[in-house]
Amino acid sequence: MIGERIQMLRKKKNLSLTELSEKASVAKSYLSSIERGIQMNPSIQFLEKVGAVLGITVEEFLQSDNANANSKNPLDNEWADLVKEAMNSGVSKEQFREFLEFSRWKNQQRDS
């Protein structure tokens, strides 16, 4: 999980929760909820800020999280590039979710 990875990297750099939140300019309470797994889908902006302090890219966060979730199907370079392109073009997670829902609906209509 991304939260576990953040916590591990934070401790490896000997940073307290407060220090990381201040250096990354993120809310300490939100950072804590991510680390504890209460919040599980941090924004790209959050990952960029925290990653800059911890020395890890958003892509590395996503790859490590995907590898832990399903080691049989790691995030390949093409998917990573597509995610990066979507992030850079301003696509939000909610917009992406809506697209996936529409795609599922469209496939169901076709299969019916």
Structure write-up:
With 112 residues, the protein is an all-alpha fold. It has one domain (2-111): lambda repressor-like DNA-binding domains (434 Repressor (Amino-terminal Domain), Orthogonal Bundle). It contains seven helices and no strands. The chain has helices at 2-12, 17-24, 28-35, 44-54, 58-69, 77-88, 93-111. The radius of gyration is 16 Å and the shape is elongated. The mean pLDDT is 84. Keywords: DNA-binding. This is Helix-turn-helix domain-containing protein.
The SSE order reads: HHHHHHH
Describe the sheet with the most strands.
none
| Structural class designation | mainly alpha
Taken as a percent bin, the fraction of beta residues is under 5%
The CATH architecture comes to Orthogonal Bundle
Domain count: the total is 1
CATH topology: 434 Repressor (Amino-terminal Domain)
CATH class: Mainly Alpha
Rg measurement, Å: 16 Å
Any descriptors?
single chain; mainly alpha; 434 Repressor (Amino-terminal Domain); 7 helices; 72% helix
How would you summarize what this structure contains?
Residues 6-61 form the HTH cro/C1-type domain. With 112 residues, the chain is mostly helical.
